[in-house]
Amino acid sequence: MISDRIKSNLTNELRRSLLAKVGIVLFVSILLMGLFAPVLATHNPHEQGHSDEAGASYPPLGLTDEITIAQDGERVSHTVEGTSEHVLGTNNVGQDIYSRFLYGARTSLLVGLSGTLLATAIGVPVGLTAGYFGGRVDDGLMRIADIMLAFPSLVLALALMGAFGRGTVGIPDPIVAAGFADGMPETITFPGMVTVVVALVTWVWFARVARGEAMAIRNEEYVKAARSLGASHATILRKHVLPNSLTPIIVLATIQVAAIILLESSLSYLGFSGTTLSWGYEIQRGHDVMRNQWWVATVPGIGIVLSVIGVNLLGDWLRDALDPNIEGEGAGGAG
Amino acid sequence: MAFGKFLIRRLLQGVFVIWGVVTITFALRALSPGDPVNLIAGQVPDQSTRDQIRQDLGLDQPMYVQYFDYLGNLLTGNLGYSYNQRRAVNDIIAQHFAATVELAVAATIVAVVIAIPLGVVSATRRDQPADYAATFGSLVGISTPNFWLGIMLILIVAMQVGVFPTSGRGIAFHEAMYNLFRYGYVLDLLSWLSYITLPAITLGTYFTALITRLTRSGMIDELGKPYVTATEAKGLPRTLVRYKHVLRNTLIPIITVLGLQLGTLMGGAVITEEVFNWPGLGQMFITSLRNGDWPVVQGIVLFIAVAFVVINILVDALYARLNPQVTDE
Amino acid sequence: MTEEILRVEELKTRFFTDEGQVNAVDGVDLSIDRGDTYGIVGESGSGKSVTARSIIDLIEPPGEITDGEIWYREPDLAAAIGDDYPDAIDGDRIDLLRIPPSVRRSLRGSNFSMIFQDPQSSFNPTITVGEQIAEAVEVQRRASANPRSTRARSEQYTLTSMILGSMFSSRRYVSPESRERAIELLELVGIPDPIERADQYPHEYSGGMLQRAMIAQALAGEPDVLIADEPTTALDVTIQAQILDLLDELQAEMGMTILLITHNLGVVARMCNRVGVMYAGEIVERGTLEDVFDDYVHPYTAGLLGSVPDMEGGGGRLQPISGNVPSLLDHEMGDRCHFADRCPKAMEDCLNHPPEYPASGSDHHAVRCVLAETGYNDGRALPDDYFDGTDRPAGDKHVGPDDRDEDSDDERQHPPAETTGGEHQ
Ligand code: SF4
Asked: How far is CA B141 from CA A333, B204, C404, in A?
């Protein structure tokens, strides 16, 4: 599994590649932001009304915004200045964008990571079994894969959301519960249905890769030997086939985290999410007011781009260091 | 001969795939909450009218009967009726698909025209500034959600330059062309161009980035193959070595990847149409889904799936023609 | 009296890799007469293939020819470019390393051509064999249509010309005449039904047939010098003999000079009249076939010959001599005889890098070994464990040529590992 050779390949590639370092830094920063959002946030992300005396939203710190407001029945020009109270400004309903940015990171990562895990958990066993046994099982899987491929992943995800609804799960926020962050939301709204849906859309990629690996491994001498020594199929799958197909699965999973972050943001942008603390949702809101408050849509988009770049760079690093043979580019992005 | 067999096999597979898509979308409709009668009749309290509607739509039948009815209708080319638009789904699709095709084709052209030269430059000037720029640009390109990119283009380009409309489609391409050739009227075409530019860039960016990456890595692989040295050794001009031999061989597999990415393109079109209020199938899909207008949703998904299957058969046929090793195997 | 067509002096080709500077070719001297067959023999990684590629100018980054002279006798060319590059001209000879790349490029195909080890990977799989040979014919046709002096410039074939060519068949690069000539060439190298064969793709050919086609392609430009890099290694033994016969015949017919790169002493004995033995980027012994096979001096040559079971039987492949394949990394090479760590006769004198000494036999016989100058002296022998970690001379941890094959697909990145994928017969 994680042999010394793999470790040294990883460190060598990391030393060689500047981009891999950038990827790690980006990913870890976003991860920390998401994890410690309640501590790092300056305001409760749901709290409205953070606007100046004329009711205008603040632009990011250091910028000024020129707007026209009605005053005593006349239209007058009014200047809003960014304030250190709201470093990234506030949105059209007066919520603090910086705090919402942190919570948005949380949602993206939660869905990205748990969606990928779920997709792996569905796809890998199916793919390994199909590839290992071959024959009818395998044919069946490949036909299902063909069908899944004919659906654009975003379209399928939307249709699933349309059919299943936008269920969410409330999880108590441990940091708030422990008393480290007063005044922050007490529950994390976990968009459970979105997670299930993105997994249902992407599992087939894991199945395909796992199948390919299993097909290659099942004919190896040591697998035949284990079989002739009386090991059961289940044991062989678990002890030999799975560990040996891990590398490409890990690389694929990394790429899929990026794809799922994009998919989640697209769903939220279109209003199929379940939580309002999402970058995609925030961009939707910003889209409505972009002519007046350009920063509302701009800031969360930067969050998406940076985290997806970070994850993609991690994926490139793993791929270059571990060199698995993954066909094509995975499911690609959805957004 | 071999080719005919191959085609028949692919067609059968395609029919199976389409059946699968139809079945899955039907199942989703069956699972979805909400009563279509409300959509059609509004909140008519009159129970007998409601029952009448239900009966007309066949919604009082058991699910399996509805399923076979639906399949039967599909076989006659009838996609059903919209719940709340009082029109046949066929008409709705016929009205909107040209806009989506225009957008998708424009985006593909943008992508191919930019990406292939970029990939070639990147591969042939490896580790030089041009390569770094292209590599970095394509990394950002595949990492940017296109709805955000669309909004940024509106903010930065449309609102500053003012030439590009930010919403709607203006005139259809075929009308613009008709006016051009019939009356020599150029402005319509320019207007069409001004409307489609930003959506096409928005939709095309991901593909530009993807094709750049594929071209670069494919060409680097290809340049390392012994036949390239052998072709150089016989004194062939470098242009021919690079383009007639290497680039051609690089692009052959990329064509297949692009066929498979058609789904991503359609997914992207859904979002792009939403951002730019582009009256295509994607926008219709979202609207219908929000309204629970399942017949339209099903019709559009089916339409996309058929397009996917047909285009991939064509791509495979093209691939077989370009790569002589395939047909013999 | 034969004249010298090619003279290589102090050729140095380096590869600048992540691990350091690789001295793939480290001061090679060669002299080849017109019409001769010169064999370079050595293990994988000895630099023989890089030497050949340096001569025909196929070294690409990170590789670079850093030093040396390659004198090529071609009176027409010398006269044509003499005014422009007087430094590069000496009488009717040209130093190929001192003329601009465009002129050098123009020599490919028409003056020098090359056949490669693995025909299957040396043809483009998606273009018909006939078309690929016709391309080579076209190169020559266009070259001879232009006077020497303008050739370098007219060789430019722009992207525009190519795009036009793909649209209008009359503007294609390859003319119908070249296609016809390609068919004649296929016939010349003994391919039956050449007209149909020309329209087939490489994967429709057998290995032996495809190697014939590659020879046809190499002959298309009627070259002065044909470089054959392991031309038979990838083939069956019976086919090998046929290909060698074909080369023999064609040489007699067309009067070409052949530079044959091989690890197979049987092939050398059958084909060559001059031989150079390469080791660690140097020619360690060279001379006529008799000099090297009968009057050898260098212990490495002795080792090679000692391990050839049957010279005529085609199976005479080079057995590795015990010990490690030498590192070609500059910082590991040291200033001693590079063979010393494997040499059974290594002495204290060998710790200084030996120059080339003349040796008994013909005038051409030269050896890079102190034994050519002084006899073996037991008293001065190096102790067995002098090069620690390496058993000398009869260790069991020898590394054969095969062990360096891992990267045979991307020789560019790992220049010293020559492609020897065909040795497993
Ligand atoms: S110089 Fe010395 S070490 Fe080198 S080959 Fe000759 S005898 Fe052996």
From this structure: 10, 10, 41
Neighboring chains of A (3 or more beta-carbon pairs < 8 A): B
User: Are A152 and A106 contained in the same domain?
Assistant: yes
Residue C369 near ligand 1, beta carbon < 6 Å: yes
Q: Which helix (H) or strand (E) holds C24?
A: strand C20-33
Place of tokens 């006349």: A74
Distance from CA of B62 to the nearest CA of C (A): 56
Whether C337 lines ligand 1, by a CB cut-off of 6 Å, is yes
Specify the length of chain A in residues: 335
Measured from the Cα of C339, ligand 1's closest atom is 4
Q: Are B271 and B147 in contact (CB under 8 A)?
A: yes
List, for residues B293-322, the tens digit of each pLDDT value.
Answer: 888 999 999 999 999 999 988 888 888 888
Contact yes or no for A271 and B290 at CB 8 A:
yes
By Cβ distance, the residue of C121, C155, C156 closest to B227 is C121
Q: Residue C178 Cα, ligand 1 centroid: separation in angstroms?
A: 53
Cα–Cα nearest to C38, from C202, C336, C276: C276
Which of B224, B236, B324 lies at the smallest CB-CB distance from C410?
A: B224
Report yes or no: C324 at the B interface, CB cutoff 8 Å: no
Q: Which atom of ligand 1 is the closest one to the Cα of C346?
A: 3
Instruction: Find out whether C255 and C149 touch, Cβ atoms under 8 Å.
Output: no
State the amino acid at position C85 in one-letter form: Y
Could you say which of A147, A305, A331 has the minimum Cβ distance to residue B20?
A: A147
Pick B143 or C401 by higher pLDDT.
B143
B290 contacts on A by Cβ (under 8 Å): 271
Output the CA–CA distances (angstroms, integers) from residue C99 to A84, A107, B252, C69, C87, in the order listed. Answer: 68, 64, 38, 11, 9
Measured between beta carbons, the chain B residues lying within 8 angstroms of C110 are 235
Q: How far is the centre of ligand 1, averaged over its atoms, from the C-alpha of C273 (Å)?
A: 25
How many Å lie between the centroid of ligand 1 and the Cα of residue C377? 12
pLDDT tens digits for range A136-170: 888 888 888 889 888 888 999 999 998 888 888 88
CA separation for the pair A311, C224 (Å, rounded): 56
In this structure, what DSSP letter does residue C321 have? P
Cβ-proximal residues to A302 (8 Å cutoff; 6+ apart), any chain = none
Q: How far is C90 from chain B (nearest CA, A)?
A: 25
Helix (H, G, I), strand (E, B) or coil at C222: coil
Q: What is the CA radius of gyration of chain B?
A: 24
All domains of chain C in start order, with CATH: 4-272 (3.40.50.300)
Chain C contact present for B237, CB below 8 A: yes
Select B90-328's CATH number: 1.20.1250.20, 2.40.128.20, 1.10.1060.10, 1.10.3720.10: 1.10.3720.10
Structural domain harbouring A61: 53-84
For chain A positions 286-305, those within 8 Å of chain B (CB to CB) are 286-287, 290-291, 294, 297-298, 300-301, 304-305
How far does the centroid of ligand 1 lie from the alpha carbon of residue C337, in Å? 6
Query: What are the residue boundaries of the structural domains of chain B, listed by start?
Result: 2-75, 90-328
* DSSP for A111-168, written as a single string: HHHHHHHHHHHHHHHHHHHHHHH-HHHHHHHHHHHHHHHHS-HHHHHHHHHHHH----
| Helix, strand and coil percent figures for chain B, each rounded to 5 | 80, 0, 20
Q: What is the interface size between B and C, counted as CB pairs within 8 Å?
A: 101
Distances (CA, A) of B26 to A295, A309, B20, B33: 42, 37, 10, 13
pLDDT digits (tens, 9 = 90+) for A87-105: 888 888 888 889 999 999 9
pTM, two decimals, is 0.83
Query: Is it the case that residue B328 has pLDDT exceeding 60?
Result: no
ipTM for the complex shown = 0.88
The gap from C-alpha A133 to its chain's centroid, in whole angstroms, comes to: 33
